[in-house]
Amino acid sequence: MTRLLPVALATLFLQSAAAAELRDINVGYDGEVYTVDSVVWFDAPQHAVYEVFADWDLSPQFSSAVVEARNIAAGEDGRRGYFVKNRGCFLFYCRSVERRGTVEATPVTELTAKANPAVSDFELSEERWTFHSEGDGTRVNYSLRMTPSFWVPPFIGPFVIKRKLREDGGEALERIETLAQARAAGDG
Question: Which DSSP string do the residues of 103-161 spell out, in sequence order?
């Protein structure tokens, strides 16, 4: 039994050292536009992490806030699209919101998603992910600028967004990492 203890401790250390890591998150509100900026590190190769983020069909598998999501075929302008329906609650108030828009991609290094306000619950929703190899994994820098087309109490909005990201984000990051590792394993 005492001989197994160092092996068990080493295994736990390696698992925790190699887990997805939320390095930084900032949520802001300037009276009109909410912003989120974050930095996350994943223990998976850059191409595999990029592929998970680039596939909107996978979103419900890693985010409990996503009720429905799908890739949309490219339109006349050649840009592919996306659809996401989120549901969130604060105290006893729950709301579903939808975003539909276009995606621009530089494979393996950058994704930009812009919602179309005519068919979304946001006047503005622009997201950008950049992917960077770092050590044995991938660093993802994320930025979001959004203006909901519905009223959100300004003193509650940033607080709730940040709290939800911190509380639910850890599990989502682990799921993203697991999906990316599975994709990477399928390559070899």
Answer: EEEETTTEEEEEE-GGGSSEEEEEEEEEEEEETTEEEEEEEEEEEESS---TTTHHHHH
